[in-house]
Amino acid sequence: MSQDQSPQSSPYVAPPSMNPFGAPPVAERALPWAKAVLVTVAVFLVAGVVAGWAWQQFSPLAQYTVDAQGGSLGEEQMTQIFGPDGTFTAIGFIAAVVLGGALFLWLRNYGPWSVAIVALGACLGGGVCWGVGMLLGHDPLDARLRAARPGDLVAAPLELHTWTPLVSWLVGAALVCAVIAATTWRADPVATTSQPAASDPAPPVH
Questions:
Q1: Hey, what's the torsion of the CAs at 13, 19, 24, 25, to 10 degrees?
Q2: Sheet holding 63-67, edge to edge
Q3: Among 4, 6, 17, 85, whose CB has the most other CB atoms within 10 angstroms?
Q4: Helices 83-106 & 167-184 angle (0-180, nearest 10)
């Protein structure tokens, strides 16, 4: 006469784990869209103000020599006409690379949208930089030439002679995003072994 026995689980079955070996890591929750956009705008807004001040402070300006006809540029001064353009490009590119890289890493959970957010912020930073610099350092040249005396040196107004330097902000942000994405897209660990299945309980013995 057989006697039913209640099934018992094997004492060697591993307890369930919240993150078993070989399972992909749980993805971090993305930031709310409003917070991501507002933080990016705020960062590039402040950076644009600081960069605009630096552009006005450190740009080499050509010097006009005042004469009876108004003012003229010597051969040496002609080479400094595009000094503000070069300074603007350098400041914008460096600022966009540093800030764009940090923000891209912070917003990486948004995927391709993080590039768009950083790019739009960089465009804002470039516009703010130009506006602040023009507000601080763009003095009309004609009025200062008329007020000067022959032999005086009058600095050229701070300005961009082409809109190309404004693109330096966007180029710097896009470049650093591309480099980071290319070097880290395989950085996440990949499971190389399958998850061991738990042993089935022994069938009842009759």
A1: -170
A2: 70-72, 63-67, 153-155
A3: 85
A4: 40
CA 30 from centroid of its chain's CA atoms = 18
CA atoms of 185 and 99, how far apart (whole Å)? 20
The C-alpha atoms of residue 67 and residue 46 are separated, in whole angstroms, by: 42
- The partner residues of 66 in beta bridges, in order of sequence, read 71
Long-range contacts of 15-20 (CB under 8 A, 24+ apart): 20/195
| Termini Cα distance of the chain | 9
